[in-house]
Amino acid sequence: MKVVAPIDGEGNSQAAIDALMGMNWRTGTQIKLLRIVSPADSGAADQEGLSASALVEANAAAKDALQGITTELRQLLPECDISSEVYPGDPKTLILGVATDWSADLIVMGSRGNTGLGLLLHGSVSQEVLNHSPCPVLIIKTDVAHEHNIQTGFKNVLLTIDDSAYGRAALDWVKKLNWPAEARVTVVTVVEALPANYKYEQNPVKASRVLKQHDLVERAANTELHSMAQELTTAFDISRIFVHVEEGDPAERITYLAKAWNTDLVVMGSHGRGGLTKLVLGSVSQSVSVQAPCAVAVVRGLVKGGIASKLQRTGMFKKLAVNQADLPPEPTLLEKLDRAESPGRVFFSGYSRD
């Protein structure tokens, strides 16, 4: 695996370094640390205003600081091949350029974790990289990293799945990583809620049809999650794998669950759309990366263009045409009561009051 880790000399750097230290890297993993010297590093308003002497001084200071970090990480991560580079210029352009030219498998970077409309409108380096990266991106938020002690690894993972190739890519990505023995993973999907006007429907036939379709979708999603959970037994202990079907707005519900379950890391796929449409309308992965109270890994660049082009509603199962014969039997009354008493998470092999 090839990992690019931008280091900015501020708090964002420590968050990224903590994440690097907490991951169980396979022997031979290559980690490239990047320090990008921008005009702001020497007080210049723009690159043209940066004198030759100031640039030399800024580059020298950056190299010294980066070399110290590189030496320390080589001692802490002896199984990895760690190198470092210093570049002058625009951070987001250079990060994306290095990741592309080097054929990186992952970008790990810190983020100040700003939230709200300001970040979406004005952007940040981490969000720009997330929107255009050729590979998965792991964003570590500096304002919450210390709360989760990520130096010891991610131990409470929320894997969000949808009915597309992008959800499958996220699942496959999680399966390939080494997780701590005590790590737990909850596989989650979000289905559409019943229409807001459903309870006012006067036609009993129409109401029954809507309710049945909703139930079929939810049960189909639950069946699919159980199947996916089975695959995760190669990476997690069987007793620490859970599934959960949520309903409502995907970004809102995923963010809520991440907070309610004290999640360390949210993993989700992304269709990788960019440009003005994405900026204006937003996407589930972008929204969660901004709003989630924890680290977020967005799996990008692993699905070839044109694959599953009709299934790109990230975070949601569509209203699929499902044959009732293909679904599991209706839960018993005892199982329904058991579900009602729990927060919704279940062992993939059965229900649990966890």
Key traits:
2 domains, 12-stranded mixed beta sheet, 354 residues, 40% helix, Rossmann fold, elongated, 12 helices, alpha/beta
Describe what you observe in this structure.
With 354 residues, the chain is an alpha/beta fold. 40% of the residues lie in helices and 19% in strands. It has two domains: 1-151, 3-Layer(aba) Sandwich (Rossmann fold), CATH 3.40.50; 154-354, 3-Layer(aba) Sandwich (Rossmann fold), CATH 3.40.50.
Kindly report the name of the CATH homologous superfamily of the largest domain: HUPs
Total DSSP helices: 12
What is the CA-based Rg, rounded?
22 Å
Q: Can you give the mean pLDDT?
A: 77
Unreliable stretches covering 5 or more consecutive residues = 42-47, 114-123, 274-282, 307-317, 319-324, 339-354
Distance between the termini: 35 Å
Overall SS class: alpha/beta
Largest sheet: 12 strands, mixed
Concise description?
The chain is α/β, with parallel strands linked by helices. The chain is built from twelve helices and twelve strands.
